[in-house]
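Fig. S4 source data, part A: sequence.
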Amino acid sequence: MSLRNSCLSRRISRSFGEAHKSSKETELDAADDSVVSSTTSASMDSGAAAAHSSGSWAGLLPELLGEIIRRVETTEDSWPHRQNVVACACVCKRWREITKDIVKSPFLSGKITFPSCLKQPGPREFPHQCLIRRNKKTSTFYLYLALTPSFSEKGKFLLAARRYRRGAHSEYIISLDAGDLSQGSNAYVGKLSSDFLGTNFTIYDSRPPHNGAKPSSSRGSRRFASKQISPQVPAGNFEVGQVSYKFNLLKSRGPRRMVCTVKCPSSGETADDIKMKKAENAGCTILRNKSPRWHEHLQCWCLNFHGRVTVASVKNFQLVATVDQSQPGGKGDEETVLLQFGKVGDDIFTMDYRQPLSAFQAFAICLTSFGTKLACE
């Protein structure tokens, strides 16, 4: 009896062992399948992520990509919607190149899109209407693109400038960033320097206006006191214009008289075209203020600002060209106002400019009007 029980117990133990081994193998197989499945899934997810990070947007067909950007450029024709065009240029290098090819310069399109547009000629048919707001406490000036006829709305921010006292003369540092107004900043675009009397000004650009241009040799024109910190950032400034106010020795009644000599690109040129020009071929545009007429009834000097100036001020002016390299023969049209500047509030001024001036040049010229000029008034 005991022998029979022993054999039966061995048989049960053997069958239980085989069943346990079989279940173990099944569990291992299931675990292996799970690992393989999860590994495959992870591999697929990482592959998709890699494909997305490698620039799936950049893989669009050129025709399709061009059509997308072209439609955005056509529909978003004014700020703040214009920022969608800028967003297209920020996707990747390929999108940026196609966007730059599609978006035309302000001279051709009449639109300001990228920061580079601020150094390109303004529209030919109609002026860009802008506002300048002054902060007397900080000696800071802000340039905005007017989006509505109202003088109370700020508009689209373009440039900022701050006045600094440098010994016997003053400087205006002009920047793309209102919070970083220094020559060492990446947002620095140029500056305006005056003499002791505040009657003669020199406009400096942070970038060479054309290929072969040499930076100014004066000590005050250097951007950095030490050695050049980067080969991509010019250590000096490049002179691109001068503004002079004529002395009024006889103290005769009348507005200020000013003459501007500015290196402007001719019509149809882009920034790339200007860089390819040689220094000796770079033409200058000579501007002078338009003479006002004396109004007998009002007993004051008057100019027609077409509603863009509402407050009488000695700072108000209109500039016309006596020599204009953008016109055939280089002769200027002394009836067409290329830049007008005037007061509309305590610290609000209008600035309207057109081709061949750029927004940067027009802003620099208008900055010369601030400040007292006893010898010229």
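Fig. S4 source data, part B ends here. DSSP finds seven helices and 14 strands in the chain.
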